[in-house]
Amino acid sequence: MSHDSTQAVTISSALSNGAPTMSSREIADICGARHNDVVATIERLFENGVLRESRKTTRTYRPEKGGRPTEVYDLTKRDTLVVVSGYNDEVRAKIIDRWMELETSVAPAPTKRPRKPAFDVAYRRFLSVASTLPNVDENQRCLMAARGTHELTGINPLELLGATSIAAPKAENYLTPTQIGEEIGMSARAVNVTLIQQGYQVKVTSSAVGSDYEPTEKGKDVSRFFDTTRRHGKGSQQQLKWSPRMVAILRPFAKKPEEVS
């Protein structure tokens, strides 16, 4: 068998098993030895437990031009070097050179590309996560979910819809209890009490954001925290403000002035 045909057989075996191997037939060709003698050496070393890395399996080699099929062994690099350790320096050098060819010619296994989720699925998942964050309004949740979706899938769903930006709520558009009370004739304290009674907020003794009140689930869609200066100007805290819609919602709870007779 020619050296080229032997190379083809060996590389094919290497690719199928994920690691390069050298056949007993190729060892015989390189060393100029009879294949039967090489096989006898391999089997003796197997019996003695010297060959450890190679599996003791054989395959049938069919010559390209005539000749009968031959049983061959496929050996790892370590076991190949053990088999030829008794040969002269020139033969061992040829075996080492051949192994260097095999190791550089075997193609690396293709890496699997991680599968990206559909952008709509990713957006819904990010939106669900954003809804668990405290003090985040609906606009902010949408923008955060869109950014996360773009990072994960490369697609911004808001841009697909033509919504390149969403107007964020401004502090001046939201009202304090004092401002709501001025609109409907109630004190700030009465507004806060009414908000509690109607299930929009709860009073807290120690808040992480420094506010005396926090919105309930019912109140989250009509309120938002804004940074404001603390009393006496020492640092800042977050103040809970309310959508202008709350003026109409709370107006029925304001006491009407008594008619003068």
In short:
The chain is α+β, with helices and mostly antiparallel strands and 261 residues long. Helices cover 44% and strands 12% of the residues.
Q: What's the helix and strand layout?
A:
Layout: H1 3-17, E1 22-23, H2 24-31, H3 35-47, E2 58-61, E3 70-75, H4 77-83, H5 89-105, H6 119-130, H7 138-153, H8 157-160, H9 177-184, H10 188-197, E4 201-203, E5 213-215, E6 223-229, E7 236-242, H11 245-250
Antiparallel strand pairs: 1-3, 2-3, 4-5, 6-7
Explain the overall architecture.
44% of the residues lie in helices and 12% in strands. The strands form 3 sheets. A 3-stranded antiparallel beta sheet has the order 1-3-2. It has a two-stranded antiparallel sheet with strand order 4-5. Strands 6-7 form a two-stranded antiparallel ribbon. It is of the alpha+beta class and 261 residues long.
